[in-house]
Protein backbone atom coordinates (compact mmCIF):
# COMPACT_ATOMS: atom_id res chain seq x y z
CA UNK A 1 0.00 0.00 0.00
CA UNK A 2 2.87 2.33 0.87
CA UNK A 3 4.59 1.52 -2.44
CA UNK A 4 1.41 2.37 -4.40
CA UNK A 5 1.08 5.66 -2.55
CA UNK A 6 4.72 6.50 -3.25
CA UNK A 7 4.34 5.72 -6.98
CA UNK A 8 1.16 7.76 -7.16
CA UNK A 9 2.91 10.71 -5.54
CA UNK A 10 5.88 10.44 -7.93
CA UNK A 11 3.56 10.34 -10.95
CA UNK A 12 1.62 13.36 -9.68
CA UNK A 13 4.82 15.30 -8.97
CA UNK A 14 6.24 14.55 -12.42
CA UNK A 15 3.03 15.58 -14.10
CA UNK A 16 2.73 18.72 -12.02
CA UNK A 17 6.13 19.73 -13.39
CA UNK A 18 4.64 19.91 -16.89
CA UNK A 19 2.42 22.82 -15.85
CA UNK A 20 -0.82 21.20 -17.09
CA UNK A 21 -3.91 20.68 -14.94
CA UNK A 22 -5.05 17.50 -16.71
CA UNK A 23 -3.12 14.28 -17.35
CA UNK A 24 -4.34 14.27 -20.94
CA UNK A 25 -6.49 16.46 -23.15
CA UNK A 26 -7.83 16.12 -26.66
CA UNK A 27 -6.57 18.57 -29.21
CA UNK A 28 -8.56 20.88 -31.45
CA UNK A 29 -7.32 20.41 -35.02
CA UNK A 30 -7.90 23.42 -37.26
CA UNK A 31 -8.98 22.51 -40.78
CA UNK A 32 -7.33 24.81 -43.32
CA UNK A 33 -8.61 24.84 -46.89
CA UNK A 34 -8.67 26.97 -49.98
CA UNK A 35 -10.45 27.43 -53.31
CA UNK A 36 -8.02 28.57 -55.95
CA UNK A 37 -10.01 28.78 -59.18
CA UNK A 38 -7.48 28.86 -62.01
CA UNK A 39 -4.48 29.35 -59.71
CA UNK A 40 -2.26 26.46 -58.56
CA UNK A 41 -0.23 25.55 -55.47
CA UNK A 42 3.52 25.52 -56.08
CA UNK A 43 4.90 24.97 -52.59
CA UNK A 44 3.68 24.27 -49.03
CA UNK A 45 5.74 24.87 -45.88
CA UNK A 46 4.63 24.08 -42.33
CA UNK A 47 6.62 25.36 -39.35
CA UNK A 48 5.97 24.51 -35.67
CA UNK A 49 7.81 26.48 -32.99
CA UNK A 50 6.56 25.38 -29.59
CA UNK A 51 2.81 25.70 -30.19
CA UNK A 52 3.12 28.49 -32.75
CA UNK A 53 2.25 27.37 -36.28
CA UNK A 54 3.06 29.01 -39.58
CA UNK A 55 1.63 27.60 -42.81
CA UNK A 56 3.05 29.20 -45.97
CA UNK A 57 1.47 28.40 -49.35
CA UNK A 58 3.00 29.60 -52.60
CA UNK A 59 0.21 30.18 -55.15
CA UNK A 60 0.74 30.75 -58.88
CA UNK A 61 -1.56 32.62 -61.26
CA UNK A 62 -0.32 31.70 -64.72
CA UNK A 63 -3.24 33.33 -66.53
CA UNK A 64 -3.32 36.74 -68.12
CA UNK A 65 -6.20 37.86 -65.91
CA UNK A 66 -6.46 38.70 -62.18
CA UNK A 67 -7.65 35.75 -60.12
CA UNK A 68 -9.18 35.46 -56.65
CA UNK A 69 -8.32 32.74 -54.15
CA UNK A 70 -10.47 31.97 -51.11
CA UNK A 71 -9.25 30.52 -47.82
CA UNK A 72 -11.02 29.18 -44.74
CA UNK A 73 -10.22 27.77 -41.31
CA UNK A 74 -12.71 25.76 -39.24
CA UNK A 75 -12.69 23.89 -35.96
CA UNK A 76 -14.53 20.64 -35.28
CA UNK A 77 -17.51 20.78 -32.90
CA UNK A 78 -16.25 21.11 -29.35
CA UNK A 79 -17.47 21.39 -25.78
CA UNK A 80 -15.94 22.55 -22.50
CA UNK A 81 -14.16 20.29 -20.01
CA UNK A 82 -14.27 22.61 -17.02
CA UNK A 83 -11.97 24.67 -14.86
CA UNK A 84 -8.25 24.20 -15.54
CA UNK A 85 -8.71 23.07 -19.13
CA UNK A 86 -5.51 23.85 -21.04
CA UNK A 87 -7.27 24.23 -24.39
CA UNK A 88 -10.07 26.36 -22.95
CA UNK A 89 -10.35 28.89 -25.79
CA UNK A 90 -10.88 26.82 -28.92
CA UNK A 91 -11.77 29.70 -31.26
CA UNK A 92 -8.20 30.51 -32.35
CA UNK A 93 -8.53 34.24 -31.66
CA UNK A 94 -4.89 34.87 -32.57
CA UNK A 95 -5.09 33.51 -36.11
CA UNK A 96 -3.71 35.94 -38.67
CA UNK A 97 -3.49 35.74 -42.47
CA UNK A 98 -1.01 37.50 -44.74
CA UNK A 99 -0.78 38.03 -48.51
CA UNK A 100 2.84 38.60 -49.56
CA UNK A 101 3.57 39.72 -46.01
CA UNK A 102 0.66 42.15 -45.74
CA UNK A 103 -2.17 41.46 -43.23
CA UNK A 104 -5.47 40.25 -44.66
CA UNK A 105 -8.83 40.94 -43.01
CA UNK A 106 -10.63 37.76 -41.94
CA UNK A 107 -14.31 37.20 -41.20
CA UNK A 108 -15.09 35.17 -38.07
CA UNK A 109 -18.19 33.18 -37.22
CA UNK A 110 -19.17 31.33 -34.02
CA UNK A 111 -22.01 28.83 -33.97
CA UNK A 112 -23.66 26.50 -31.45
CA UNK A 113 -25.19 23.04 -31.98
CA UNK A 114 -27.37 20.78 -29.84
CA UNK A 115 -28.76 17.36 -30.78
CA UNK A 116 -27.92 17.95 -34.42
CA UNK A 117 -29.60 21.34 -34.55
CA UNK A 118 -28.04 24.75 -35.16
CA UNK A 119 -29.07 26.79 -32.11
CA UNK A 120 -26.92 29.86 -32.80
CA UNK A 121 -29.86 32.24 -33.33
CA UNK A 122 -31.67 30.89 -30.25
CA UNK A 123 -28.59 31.40 -28.05
CA UNK A 124 -27.86 34.89 -29.35
CA UNK A 125 -31.49 35.94 -28.83
CA UNK A 126 -31.17 34.88 -25.19
CA UNK A 127 -27.88 36.80 -24.83
CA UNK A 128 -25.79 33.61 -24.59
CA UNK A 129 -22.48 33.14 -26.39
CA UNK A 130 -22.71 30.21 -28.87
CA UNK A 131 -19.22 29.10 -27.80
CA UNK A 132 -19.39 26.87 -24.67
CA UNK A 133 -17.51 28.36 -21.75
CA UNK A 134 -17.19 28.04 -17.98
CA UNK A 135 -17.66 31.80 -17.72
CA UNK A 136 -21.15 31.73 -19.25
CA UNK A 137 -24.10 33.41 -17.55
CA UNK A 138 -25.84 30.41 -15.97
CA UNK A 139 -28.93 32.47 -15.08
CA UNK A 140 -29.54 33.07 -18.80
CA UNK A 141 -28.65 29.48 -19.69
CA UNK A 142 -31.17 28.09 -17.17
CA UNK A 143 -33.92 30.12 -18.87
CA UNK A 144 -33.26 28.62 -22.31
CA UNK A 145 -36.15 26.55 -23.73
CA UNK A 146 -36.03 22.76 -23.64
CA UNK A 147 -35.36 20.90 -26.87
CA UNK A 148 -36.78 17.41 -27.36
CA UNK A 149 -37.71 17.53 -23.67
CA UNK A 150 -34.06 18.05 -22.66
CA UNK A 151 -32.47 21.02 -20.93
CA UNK A 152 -30.43 23.03 -23.39
CA UNK A 153 -27.00 22.72 -21.85
CA UNK A 154 -23.67 21.16 -22.78
CA UNK A 155 -24.11 22.21 -26.39
CA UNK A 156 -21.19 22.19 -28.79
CA UNK A 157 -19.57 25.16 -30.46
CA UNK A 158 -17.72 25.73 -33.71
CA UNK A 159 -15.52 28.59 -34.92
CA UNK A 160 -14.79 29.35 -38.56
CA UNK A 161 -12.85 32.02 -40.40
CA UNK A 162 -12.64 33.03 -44.04
CA UNK A 163 -10.80 35.47 -46.31
CA UNK A 164 -9.92 36.02 -49.96
CA UNK A 165 -7.02 37.55 -51.89
CA UNK A 166 -6.46 38.91 -55.38
CA UNK A 167 -3.58 37.57 -57.47
CA UNK A 168 -2.24 39.73 -60.27
CA UNK A 169 -1.92 38.27 -63.79
CA UNK A 170 1.13 36.05 -64.36
CA UNK A 171 2.30 36.25 -60.75
CA UNK A 172 3.19 34.15 -57.71
CA UNK A 173 2.04 35.09 -54.22
CA UNK A 174 2.87 33.78 -50.75
CA UNK A 175 -0.16 33.17 -48.53
CA UNK A 176 0.80 32.81 -44.86
CA UNK A 177 -1.37 31.70 -41.94
CA UNK A 178 -0.14 32.02 -38.35
CA UNK A 179 -1.87 30.74 -35.21
CA UNK A 180 -1.32 28.97 -31.91
CA UNK A 181 -2.08 25.25 -32.14
CA UNK A 182 -4.11 23.30 -29.57
CA UNK A 183 -2.45 19.86 -29.70
CA UNK A 184 -3.64 16.68 -28.07
CA UNK A 185 -1.33 15.95 -25.14
CA UNK A 186 -0.78 13.17 -22.64
CA UNK A 187 1.71 12.08 -20.01
CA UNK A 188 3.01 8.69 -21.17
CA UNK A 189 5.10 6.01 -19.53
CA UNK A 190 7.96 5.24 -21.91
CA UNK A 191 7.44 1.46 -21.71
CA UNK A 192 3.63 1.58 -21.96
CA UNK A 193 1.68 0.01 -24.83
CA UNK A 194 -0.09 3.31 -25.43
CA UNK A 195 3.28 4.99 -26.08
CA UNK A 196 4.22 2.18 -28.47
CA UNK A 197 0.97 2.60 -30.39
CA UNK A 198 1.33 6.38 -30.57
CA UNK A 199 4.84 6.11 -32.03
CA UNK A 200 3.74 3.45 -34.52
CA UNK A 201 0.79 5.61 -35.61
CA UNK A 202 3.38 8.18 -36.68
CA UNK A 203 5.52 5.60 -38.53
CA UNK A 204 8.28 5.55 -35.91
CA UNK A 205 10.21 2.77 -34.19
CA UNK A 206 9.24 2.51 -30.49
CA UNK A 207 12.43 0.59 -29.68
CA UNK A 208 14.69 3.15 -31.35
CA UNK A 209 12.92 6.07 -29.68
CA UNK A 210 13.07 4.39 -26.26
CA UNK A 211 16.83 3.86 -26.67
CA UNK A 212 17.25 7.55 -27.56
CA UNK A 213 15.20 8.63 -24.54
CA UNK A 214 17.08 6.34 -22.13
CA UNK A 215 20.40 7.60 -23.47
CA UNK A 216 19.38 11.25 -23.09
CA UNK A 217 17.72 10.86 -19.67
CA UNK A 218 18.45 7.46 -18.05
CA UNK A 219 16.31 8.16 -14.98
CA UNK A 220 13.19 9.29 -16.85
CA UNK A 221 10.21 6.93 -17.08
CA UNK A 222 7.62 9.52 -18.18
CA UNK A 223 7.45 11.81 -21.19
CA UNK A 224 4.98 14.36 -22.48
CA UNK A 225 3.54 13.56 -25.90
CA UNK A 226 1.82 16.13 -28.11
CA UNK A 227 0.03 15.38 -31.37
CA UNK A 228 -0.31 18.26 -33.82
CA UNK A 229 -2.99 17.53 -36.42
CA UNK A 230 -3.38 19.59 -39.57
CA UNK A 231 -6.40 18.66 -41.71
CA UNK A 232 -5.54 20.10 -45.13
CA UNK A 233 -8.31 18.88 -47.44
CA UNK A 234 -7.05 20.94 -50.38
CA UNK A 235 -3.74 19.07 -50.47
CA UNK A 236 -3.58 16.05 -52.75
CA UNK A 237 -0.25 14.24 -53.00
CA UNK A 238 1.54 17.54 -52.38
CA UNK A 239 5.07 17.50 -50.93
CA UNK A 240 5.00 19.55 -47.71
CA UNK A 241 8.06 21.01 -46.03
CA UNK A 242 7.90 20.48 -42.24
CA UNK A 243 10.10 22.25 -39.72
CA UNK A 244 9.94 21.56 -35.98
CA UNK A 245 11.83 24.11 -33.90
CA UNK A 246 12.46 24.46 -30.20
CA UNK A 247 10.27 27.12 -28.56
CA UNK A 248 11.86 30.53 -28.20
CA UNK A 249 10.47 30.83 -24.67
CA UNK A 250 10.06 28.38 -21.80
CA UNK A 251 6.88 26.33 -22.13
CA UNK A 252 5.02 23.81 -19.94
CA UNK A 253 6.00 20.21 -20.57
CA UNK A 254 9.78 20.26 -20.41
CA UNK A 255 12.28 20.00 -23.28
CA UNK A 256 11.16 19.15 -26.82
CA UNK A 257 13.21 16.09 -27.74
CA UNK A 258 11.87 14.12 -30.73
CA UNK A 259 9.37 14.41 -33.56
CA UNK A 260 7.75 11.84 -35.86
CA UNK A 261 5.41 12.05 -38.84
CA UNK A 262 4.54 9.52 -41.52
CA UNK A 263 6.46 10.18 -44.73
CA UNK A 264 8.77 12.69 -43.00
CA UNK A 265 12.43 12.51 -44.05
CA UNK A 266 13.78 14.91 -41.41
CA UNK A 267 15.75 14.02 -38.28
CA UNK A 268 13.97 12.48 -35.30
CA UNK A 269 15.57 14.86 -32.81
CA UNK A 270 14.31 18.43 -32.37
CA UNK A 271 15.04 20.80 -34.07
CA UNK A 272 14.20 18.99 -37.31
CA UNK A 273 13.63 20.01 -40.91
CA UNK A 274 12.51 17.87 -43.83
CA UNK A 275 9.73 17.01 -46.25
CA UNK A 276 6.56 14.96 -45.92
CA UNK A 277 6.38 13.43 -49.35
CA UNK A 278 3.03 13.23 -51.12
CA UNK A 279 1.01 14.48 -48.15
CA UNK A 280 -2.65 13.53 -48.49
CA UNK A 281 -5.33 15.72 -46.95
CA UNK A 282 -3.97 15.63 -43.41
CA UNK A 283 -0.63 15.93 -41.61
CA UNK A 284 -0.10 14.59 -38.09
CA UNK A 285 3.14 15.23 -36.18
CA UNK A 286 4.08 13.67 -32.83
CA UNK A 287 6.37 15.69 -30.55
CA UNK A 288 7.88 13.97 -27.50
CA UNK A 289 9.25 16.08 -24.65
CA UNK A 290 11.48 15.15 -21.75
CA UNK A 291 10.18 16.44 -18.45
CA UNK A 292 11.79 19.45 -16.77
CA UNK A 293 13.89 17.20 -14.54
CA UNK A 294 15.84 15.95 -17.56
CA UNK A 295 19.02 18.04 -18.07
CA UNK A 296 19.75 19.77 -21.37
CA UNK A 297 22.52 18.00 -23.25
Q: What order do the helices and strands come in, and which of them pair?
A:
Elements: H1 2-16, E1 24-25, E2 31-35, E3 40-49, E4 52-61, E5 67-74, E6 96-99, E7 102-104, E8 107-114, E9 117-118, H2 120-125, H3 138-142, E10 156-167, E11 171-180, E12 184-189, H4 193-201, H5 206-216, E13 222-245, E14 255-260, E15 272-290
Parallel strand pairs: 3-13
Antiparallel strand pairs: 1-12, 2-5, 3-4, 4-11, 5-10, 6-7, 6-11, 8-9, 8-10, 12-13, 13-15, 14-15
Walk me through the structure.
By secondary structure, the protein is of the alpha+beta class. It has a domain at 1-27 and 183-297. The chain is built from 5 helices and 15 strands. The protein has helices spanning 2-16, 120-125, 138-142, 193-201, 206-216; strands at 24-25, 31-35, 40-49, 52-61, 67-74, 96-99, 102-104, 107-114, 117-118, 156-167, 171-180, 184-189, 222-245, 255-260, 272-290. The strands form 2 sheets. Strands 1, 3, 4, 6, 7, 11, 12, 13, 14 and 15 form a 10-stranded mixed sheet that branches. The protein has a 5-stranded antiparallel sheet with strand order 2-5-10-8-9. Strand 3 and strand 4 (52-61) form a beta hairpin. The longest helix has 15 residues, at 2-16. The two termini are 37 Å apart. The model is unreliable at 1-22 (pLDDT under 50).
Amino acid sequence: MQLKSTLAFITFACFASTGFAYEFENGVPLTLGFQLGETTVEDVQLRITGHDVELAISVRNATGQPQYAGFYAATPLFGSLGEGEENSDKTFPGLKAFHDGKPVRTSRHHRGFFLGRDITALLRKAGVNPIPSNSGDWRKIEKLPRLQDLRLENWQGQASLGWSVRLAPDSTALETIRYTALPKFALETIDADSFTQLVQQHCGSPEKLRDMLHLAAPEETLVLTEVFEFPLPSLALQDTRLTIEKPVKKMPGGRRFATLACGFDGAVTVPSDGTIHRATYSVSALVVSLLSSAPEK
